[in-house]
Specification:
Elements (H helix, E strand, L loop, with lengths): L1 H7 L2 H17 L5 H5 L7 H11 L5 H13 L13 H36 L4 H15 L2 H15 L24 H7 L3 H38 L2 H8 L4 H12 L1 H17 L2 H6 L5 H10 L3 H29 L2 H7 L1
Helix pairs in contact: 2-16, 6-7, 6-10, 6-13, 6-16, 7-10, 8-10, 9-10, 10-12, 10-13, 13-16, 15-16
Length: 339
């Protein structure tokens, strides 16, 4: 607990820095939100000034910042001009869609990347090793929107085995009763097997699109970490003592190779959650990424600021979780922190 508390002390300064940077970036964007929402030709300069006063844009920048900090301190992320709803409510309503997509893609990437990296490290310069390199290079090189469009063209347009990419569920279907916000979970909780199959079919292509991009760094890091550990002296000693190959690989080698892999896992998950906006747009997925992009195009500051703060909080929480996992995998990490 002391180890966790010490690691948590750095959260407040990090979030404070993100708060300042977020405010400055959004207010340095070109364009005037008041002019954007006063695009009606019948509106004159007085109407635009009234909108600026209503939005608080007529105040000095430092006053706008302190008012914003006071709102955030009370849990108020502002109100979206485009939806007319509080930003916190919009984000909490849309976050489960993005989380469900990210978790499914992350799980799929791990199921492919970790065994692929281990197999490539066990047989360097083999066909499996070359396949790992090719898949990793392709995953990094291809943008997610290109991969998504290719998958839609092949599996929906040509093969006709994937459903229409129009969101989380068929347009004519009724969403399940909201419990967790995850359609795959809520359909099971409500006993709707048909709805579960429908939601699973809808999430396959977008999850595969994100997984192909995420598995590249995971496979390469797993391969590199395993190669380093397999050449260590204690692995040679384990082989000399006649231990089985599975015990050497999974009990000794993989556990010692987990530290850099865990770091990569945390970074990849955080990046996937915040950078899935293109995938959400391609597949019409109603998540926080597409919501924030729409707000950015409309010069709606509050949702963009709320999105960045939420992503920063999630990223800090994941980093704290990684530190805890470090201490569980290797207790020496906790001792180093105490020193």
């Amino acid at each position: 607990m002391r180890y966790v508390l010490r690691r948590g002390f750095g959260v407040a300064p990090t979030l404070a820095g993100v708060l300042v940077v977020t405010f400055l970036i959004t207010h340095c964007l070109p364009g005037d939100p008041a002019v954007f929402f006063a695009s009606n030709p019948s509106m004159d300069a007085g109407a635009v000034a009234a909108i600026r006063e209503k939005l608080g844009l007529d105040l000095p920048l430092w006053r706008q910042f302190f008012l914003y900090v006071a709102q955030v301190a009370h849990g108020d992320l502002g109100q979206s001009i485009t939806t007319g709803q509080p930003v916190a409510r919009d984000l909490m309503r849309l976050l489960p869609a993005s989380m469900e997509l990210t978790i499914c893609a992350f799980a799929l990437a791990n199921l492919i990347a970790l065994p692929l990296g281990i197999a490539a490290a066990l047989r360097p310069r083999s066909l499996m090793d070359h396949a790992c390199r090719i898949i990793s290079t392709a995953g990094v090189s291809l943008p997610t929107f290109v991969t998504g469009l290719v998958l839609i063209y092949v599996f929906y347009y040509l093969a006709d085995i994937a459903p229409e990419p129009i969101g989380r569920i068929d347009a004519f279907a009724v969403p399940p009763p909201r419990v967790t916000g995850f359609f795959l979970v809520d359909t099971l909780l409500s006993g709707d097997a048909r709805g579960f199959v429908m939601a699973a079919k809808q999430i396959v292509l977008p999850a595969l699109t994100m997984a192909l991009f995420a598995l590249a760094p995971l496979a390469r890091m797993t391969r590199a970490a395993m190669l380093g550990v397999l050449s260590a002296d204690f692995i040679r000693a384990a082989r000399a003592n006649g231990l089985s190959a599975s015990t050497i690989v999974f009990t000794y080698a993989f556990r010692n190779a987990m530290l850099p892999v865990v770091t990569t896992l945390g970074m990849v998950f955080s990046y996937m959650l915040g950078a899935n906006v293109l995938v959400e747009k391609v597949f019409a997925w109603p998540g926080i990424g597409s919501y924030t992009l729409d707000a950015l195009m409309a010069l709606d500051y509050a949702p963009v600021q709320g999105f960045m703060l939420m992503m920063a909080a999630i990223f800090v929480a994941i980093n704290l979780l990684i530190d805890v996992v470090y201490a569980l995998i290797d207790p020496r990490a906790e001792l180093d922190a105490d020193a």
